[in-house]
Amino acid sequence: MREFLQALLEVPWLPLQTKGAIFLKRGEGLHLVAEYRLDEPLKTACALLPLGRCLCGRVGLTEEPLWIPEVDEAHEITYPGMPPHGHAILPLKVGKRVLGVLNLYLEPGVRLSTTVKATLEMAAGLLALAVLRERAERAARVLHRASQVALEAQDEAEYFQRLCGLLVEEGYALAWVGEALPDGRVRPLEGAGAVGYLEGLVVRHDETPEGQGPTGRAIRLGKPQVLRDVGTDPNYGPWRLRAQRFGFASSAAFPLRIGERVFGTLNVYAPEPDAFDPEEVALLQDLAYSAGKALERFRAQALAHLLSQVVEQVPEAIFITNLEGRITYANAALYTQTGYSPSEVLGQNPRIFKSGKHPEAFYRHLWDTLQRGQVFQSLFYNRRKDGRLVVEHKILTPIRDLRGQVVAYSSTGRNITREWSLYRIQQVLIQMLERFLQEGMGRSFFQHFLDRVLEAIPGAEAGSLLLRNQDGSFSFVALTGHDPGLKEVRLAPEEVYALQAQASQGRVSGAVLGEFLRHLPPEKGGILRQRGRFGELKETLYARLEVEGEAIGALYLDAFQAPFPEEALDPFRFLARWLEMVFSWERAQVQARYLRYHDPLTGLPNRAFLEEAWREREETLSLVLADLNSFGENNQTHGRKVGDMLLAAAARAWAELLPKGGELYRLGDDEFLFVLPLEPGRVLGFYQDLTRALEASAPSALEKAKLGISVGVVAYPCDGRNLGELLRRADLALREAKKGRGIAYFNRELEAAYMERVEVLAALEEALREGRLILFGQPIVDLSTLEAVATEVLVRWPREGGFWPAGAFIPLAEETGLIRELDLYVLRRVETLPESSVWHVNLSPQTLRDPRFLEVASRLRGKGVRFEITEYALAQGVEEVLKELVEMGFGLVLDDFGQGYASLNTLIQHPFCMVKMDRGFTAGLGQNPKSHAVLRASLSLARELGLELVAEGVETEVQRDWLLRLGYRFAQGYLFGTPQPISGS
User: Fold this and answer.
1) In which element (H, E) is residue 220 found?
2) Interval 686-696: pLDDT, tens
3) 3-state SS of 943-971?
4) Which of 20, 27, 169, 837 is the most exposed place for a label (fewest CB within 10 A)?
5) Selection from 637, 714, 728, 725 nearest residue 676 by Cα
6) What are phi and psi of 498, to 5 degrees?
7) Which of the 8 DSSP states describes residue 316?
8) What's the pTM?
């Protein structure tokens, strides 16, 4: 363009100054693209002109030439010392399109003739045609290169990267491709140019502020979006500073489509505003359209490759035949499954796989179905190259071309030999079990069993079952495919192969089995070889049948045509195990009938026996429900075996103490029931005898243990006649006895107290369900300032006129396990408390072991929660849970330190941040010097360990003063505030 301008200005007969400029239209402005001897101030001022500004901008807007002999105030752009001059300014116009402006300088006062004007207008027209041609050639060049890139790229990633590079070569500062993700984000895939702009870039295609830029709108609306000026567009706020830092002034985004779906966008950036005129937009739109088509092709190619890999890699055997039934393709699975090589399969008819087990009518139906253009599917019994049988579920499908004509057939086969055999075996065993339950074991049962099994194990052609006789020899009780005369043969255990084999189940070749028979006595070996067809055997499956480790028989299945397929082994093993189960079940019936009514450890009758034998009588009886004291602790200390020895010895000793007509039952783990023909008053002496007998009969390992029993006594019939009612009342008395007296008699007050507990527990469960429990808080204060530094969360249960005492329902909840629900209830309420405070929440050991706890606790992260754990909880094996709580950011507080089981080792081994000294030490301040010593020593130790100490139970100013003198910082107690409702809980 500069050469054109120079040549025009140097035409001798044109009255022009040798100065001029060419502007091209971009968006709503004119851009200086070429100049000749233009003054430096004008180069800067005229680099970008809005349409309508100054003379050139006016021509660009009116599209009419201007002939001005001398400039006046209409020339808006001036500079000091600008010489006088005139202008010939002509639009670069093709048809109705204005591409730009040609600006020529005249000597002041020169008026151009009509001929000169015509010449200059012709020159402007030629220049416009040249510009238009250059743009067309550029568009063709860009599209052509993009097409080449699409053909040369190996995948869509390479294509996008090279396409973006092409656009940067054409003058854009940045080009990138973004993918629209389902969650509203736009993910940059590939880019070129100033790609640093993309680092950390957040772009979306939803209605969020990050979705209002060109990219998000292009995806959402499916149309090109042009941003004229990043500095003024109100929607570009999230990216304005980033764009200005990289020198971007305008950008455009063009939707990329796969079919009808917008996949993403092609995004381009330019350093000048209004960079995208209609022609530029049209070019980039064509490029985006081509990119979408290329992307469709890449996706189709990738899908085709994926499908081909699926066909090659799936475990199902697949082959394709032509219309004549010749195999033209087979995948790797077919060769693996059949044992044939490609050269042995390709070009062959699928009949090479035939097993001979299908009638000809089966194949006629197959071809009739395919030739009607329908899908055929069925079970196929085929053979591998080595002759082994395989069961396949095959689907044969006609394959059609684009015109709908059948051109080939495909076969997809899944090897279901194992599943088919297991299913058949399952059906056989269900039927045999029904027969067994109806008829029991007998020769007809075994023969029917063996006949049906042969139909279910692929490759099996004969079979035999041997069972042990009472004299220890073995006989054939069932035969299939062998001479029935074999049933006359009796074999010694060493003459039965299955009993001599190392493995209890397996497979053995005919040659090995024949060699085994040659070592038998001649008369037996000859009969077995002759009548058992051992010379024809290919392979035998065998199983030694055992019950409780004792061999009771052997099962054999024989194959003569080919070895058994691998898939037959699992069904055969399943079959043998089932047969052993039947034998075991039969043997167990007698024992089960005994065990149903007796305890296997002590031999005593059990609860089932008691319930069936109980009858109402007229004589007076005492029912004594007994329970061993500390039985669980002794088991943990000495082991379960010692505990069992104690139970068995006690049962024997106690049975000898029974009076005439007395009965002894074992009802549970360490729970016994004595039914005694005694008046209740005489039971005390019997109880003392029981205690002495227990101590005398105890195993040596328990000589120093504290042995004893607790008993609850009910009187029949005055305390009840129904057995269930008597046992329930005896249990209430036993609960009372366990409180320390050793023996307790049922009375109505016990039952009333029990019912009250039941009612309280039911009411508490209801209160939890309905959310009627509320949170109270008691402050933990700074002793110096009396300001609260934390609040201990307490739970209160409202009732009419006040609240239930915590001591009335908390221990009950702990005892019954409801404490877990109570603690989780509190944790869910703590979620609603303000985050500005520190909250101390007490936890039961049972809650720490609840599988729901950590999930509920995780929702309290960041709320300033500390968990208070008692010393008792540390003995319950909760170390891992405590470690997880610390890792989640919670503080742990050891509560009531010094009251229970803790040692100094506790403070070292567990991740506590605070310790609360038990109120018993605080109560002794000013009275007991030992309390002072403990509190002072604990404080010194805590400082060394980096722990905070809280003194509990502070109720007087004297106690506060003592604690301050000792150096304590934190305390809690009624002196600083009683528990109060927490607002918002």
Assistant:
1) helix 214-221
2) 998 999 999 88
3) HHHCCEEEECCCCCHHHHHHHHHHCCCEE
4) 169
5) 714
6) -60, -30
7) S
8) 0.41
